[in-house]
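Duplicate of #3305? Posting structure anyway:
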């Protein structure tokens, strides 16, 4: 295979080096393109653009493969935990026992937020969406960490990263309690990461929430499956912000905002809303699918939880979640008619030429919302759960950007298609 590509333009030939990834993907290195030809590349929404070289996550979207630091997601889902996987993603290897203990100790040390942060929560109306509160509060939390304004230091970063992973869970639980008019619940040292989150969400000042092992296992798995997913919209946002040398908390807060949209992390909430709408209209899903295929309506209905920019086969996370969804519902003795609608929708869509031709398969959000609903997570917290899970990925990507010795600020170009030179008209002669 050749290691250069030739581009002919205006009678000149430019040689473009081919970069090969460790799993054999190939990319044309166009960094000299503009210098040599005066042209830029055009790739709206970046479907063909590699924005970085990264060692964190590998996806083969055609084969449905997902690996964190080389380890298949199926193995991590079976044998690991969210906290261990977070360490793997950030530091590049599974932790030795002493490293795991230190990491857990740091998570415990930083689990409580500064008492003054409570005043910030007071300012939000009770109708505020928890994602809005979360992103604002991550930024607010940065004001309590003076080290964030200093130059990057890998030793300090270990503590700052642990603090973010630990506190995002406390902030998320407080955001939920605030938006439901409930008093905040402090974390407990005796609880591990996911247990503590459930405790802060569902205990009350006079009674501790009893944590069902199936609920704990399911939520930990959801966090783990969301822990990273290479250059998606929110992670690219985090990298973009990090490239300006903004601090970790500011970059993560931007990631939360990007994740909120219904085409990204907000899809898990949108899936449940779609299933409820189908149920309420007495449809078994077939009428809805016809509407989707006609691309009807003001907002051109989509089958939410289906399709993916990278996966052109079944999302491996969806496969794991679907299997776990059945298990959890059985263990909790829950029968959810929405699950029946979801399965019927999936079955019908996967036989339909519209979805087959476009290679649209269920993504992680198709079943994750159903599990979250079964374990009692409120609908408006679904995307927040995704944000907690994605934090290790954002941190690892932030670290890659900051530690890259040749790193420059991210700054795409554009092709201007507006009016040509157009002089200012004084207001008295404008018509
Ligand atoms: N339902 C119906 N049609 C779809 C869907 C869907 N869910 N997804 C894509 N299509 C259609 C498009 O309309 C387009 O049709 P066309 O060829 O007739 O124009 C074709 O499939 C190709 O789709 P694109 O828009 O090019 O796909 P893109 O890669 O830009 O978008 C995305 C990917 C945003 C995930 C899209 O599939 C979608 O909107 N899905 C629903 C929302 C969702 O589930 N998001 C979660 C993604 S996973 C995550 O973020 C964790």
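Output from current build:
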């Amino acid at each position: 295979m050749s290691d250069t590509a030739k581009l002919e333009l205006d009678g000149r030939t430019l040689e473009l080096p081919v970069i090969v990834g460790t799993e054999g993907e190939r990319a044309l290195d166009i960094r000299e393109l503009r210098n040599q030809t005066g042209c830029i590349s055009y790739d709206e929404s970046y479907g063909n653009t590699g924005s970085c070289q990264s060692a964190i996550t590998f996806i083969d979207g055609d084969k449905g493969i997902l690996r964190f630091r080389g380890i298949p997601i199926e193995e991590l889902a079976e044998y690991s935990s969210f906290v261990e996987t977070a360490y793997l993603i950030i530091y590049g290897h599974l932790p030795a026992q002493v490293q795991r203990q230190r990491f857990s100790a740091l998570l415990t040390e930083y689990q409580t937020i500064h008492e003054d942060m409570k005043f910030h929560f007071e300012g939000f109306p009770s109708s505020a969406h928890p994602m809005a509160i979360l992103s604002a509060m991550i930024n607010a939390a940065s004001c309590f960490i003076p080290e964030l304004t200093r130059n990057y230091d890998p030793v300090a970063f270990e503590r700052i990263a642990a603090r973010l992973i630990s506190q995002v869970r406390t902030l998320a639980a407080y955001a939920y309690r605030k938006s439901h008019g409930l008093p905040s619940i402090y974390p407990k040292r005796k609880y591990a990461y996911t247990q503590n989150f459930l405790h802060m969400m569902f205990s009350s000042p006079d009674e501790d929430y009893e944590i069902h092992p199936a609920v704990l296992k399911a939520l930990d798995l959801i966090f783990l499956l969301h822990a990273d997913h290479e250059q998606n919209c929110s992670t690219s946002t985090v990298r973009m912000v990090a490239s300006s040398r903004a601090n970790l908390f500011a970059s993560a807060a931007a990631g939360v905002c990007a994740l909120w949209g219904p085409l990204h992390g907000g899809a898990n909430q949108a899936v449940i809303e779609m299933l409820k709408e189908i149920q309420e209209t007495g449809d078994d899903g077939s009428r809805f699918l016809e509407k989707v295929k006609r691309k009807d309506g003001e907002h051109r209905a989509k089958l939410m939880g289906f399709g993916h920019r990278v996966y052109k086969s079944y999302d491996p996370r969806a496969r794991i979640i679907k299997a776990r969804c059945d298990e959890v519902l059985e263990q909790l003795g829950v029968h959810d008619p929405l699950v029946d609608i979801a399965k019927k929708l999936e079955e019908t869509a996967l036989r339909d030429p519209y979805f087959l031709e476009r290679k649209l398969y269920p993504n992680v959000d198709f079943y994750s919302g159903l599990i979250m609903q079964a374990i009692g997570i409120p609908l408006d917290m679904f995307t927040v759960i995704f944000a907690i899970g994605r934090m290790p990925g954002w941190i690892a990507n932030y670290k890659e950007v900051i530690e890259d010795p040749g790193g420059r600020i991210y700054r795409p170009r554009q092709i201007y298609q507006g009016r040509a030179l157009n002089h200012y008209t004084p207001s008295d002669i404008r018509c």
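Confirmed duplicate; merging threads. The chain has a mean pLDDT of 94. Residues 232, 263-265, 267, 292, 302-309, 358, 360, 363-365 surround acetyl coenzyme *A (CB under 6 Å).
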